Amino acid sequence: MSDSSLQLTNYIRKKTQQAVVSWGDNIVTIGGDAPIRVQSMTNTDTVDAVGTAIQVKELARAGSELVRITVNTPEAAAAVPYIREQLDKMDVKVPLIGDFHYNGHTLLKDYPDCAKALSKYRINPGNVGKGAKRDIQFSQMIEAAIRYEKPIRIGVNWGSLDQDLLAQLMDANAALATPKDSREIMVEALIQSALQSTQKAVEIGMPLSQIILSCKVSAVQDLISVYRELSNRCDNPLHLGLTEAGIGSKGIVASTAALSVLLQEGIGDTIRISLTPEPGASRDNEVIVAQEILQTMNLRHFTPMVIACPGCGRTTSTYFQHLASEIQSYLRNQMPLWKKDFPGVESMSVAVMGCIVNGPGESKHADIGISLPGTGETPSAPVFIDGQKAKTLRGDNIIGEFQQIVQEYVQQRYTPKNI
């Protein structure tokens, strides 16, 4: 029996306060009605100012709107102004986030040029000090943020959770007639650490709107539980990320599974995909994965989407696979140029199909598409533009000819009318 009351899924994003992270004239808003932002982090030794600046540039060029760098030693803190200087010379205005642990209070005090060159501070309340020193050292970091007018992220991590707070909650739970599961206590400890630290920062004088929160864990279901509850209990912008997600497909799948659920529920204002890079792999893969999560969910558009046939027994030739790969690389490489001159091009869809079964139909639904011949089919490739067959390509240069067609289509459709 069919259900005549079928409801399509609606996406409603939670409205949070809006934080502002900037460098020069590059203003990146977070939360409120701002787009969900993509963030990444370098894995260079920050002391290597040139190497770090180069990697930041690569991440920014890939689409990272904020880049976090490790600031863990006096030498690293001293290098930060030079990293910023190198980026400015290359006209890379991406805001830098300083990742502080243990000695952040000292580094921000002893290296004021570092404090000024950073656009945001990440503070882990589990690593700011122990005992009586915790409140003092936390206050010193907040005071630095206030002095230099920098937003902060209070980033709680289950691997470095405040053990005193966790012990208090565990003891209180043990005294209950019906104790809760230890997993529930861990989730509560993460949330309380973030919210209590936020309250302390506000009491010191930090504007509430300039505090971003995160509570990261490495298990998918735990991350979903933490952020659902955190979102219910605050209006701060939230940074999402599955910490220690892993390497290769495992890290990509786990991050996608966790973040997609939360994003669909309207939770999250910035995201980072914490992938362990495979040997020789580019660091910017985590940026591409973050963008693709947002784009496939239709939450943002970064580069034209390629719809490609997976292949089957009707497509024993791998030619369409090569074409799909070439087109995907071509589109991504062109975007830094296209986005300046052709606004809206990032929402374009391109279909690369492998045989007559679904090829023409999928190609008609895309803005521009090509249907390649399957096994035994006539060696020709019809091209469809805006749903209509435009021409048929043959010969040994189909890739080059199709790329030229895409370029001409972009110029004709997306050139601003006032140019």
TrEMBL record:
Its cofactor is [4Fe-4S] cluster. Residues 28-290 form the IspG TIM-barrel domain. It holds the Pfam family GcpE_C. The keyword Protein transport does not apply. Its EC number is 1.17.7.3. The keyword Oxidoreductase applies. Pathway: Isoprenoid biosynthesis; isopentenyl diphosphate biosynthesis via DXP pathway; isopentenyl diphosphate from 1-deoxy-D-xylulose 5-phosphate: step 5/6. It is an enzyme of class 1 (oxidoreductase). It comes from the Bacteria. Transmembrane segments: none annotated. GO terms for molecular function: 4 iron, 4 sulfur cluster binding; 4-hydroxy-3-methylbut-2-en-1-yl diphosphate synthase activity (ferredoxin); 4-hydroxy-3-methylbut-2-enyl-diphosphate synthase activity (flavodoxin); iron ion binding. Converts 2C-methyl-D-erythritol 2,4-cyclodiphosphate (ME-2,4cPP) into 1-hydroxy-2-methyl-2-(E)-butenyl 4-diphosphate. This is 4-hydroxy-3-methylbut-2-en-1-yl diphosphate synthase (flavodoxin). It comes from Polynucleobacter kasalickyi.
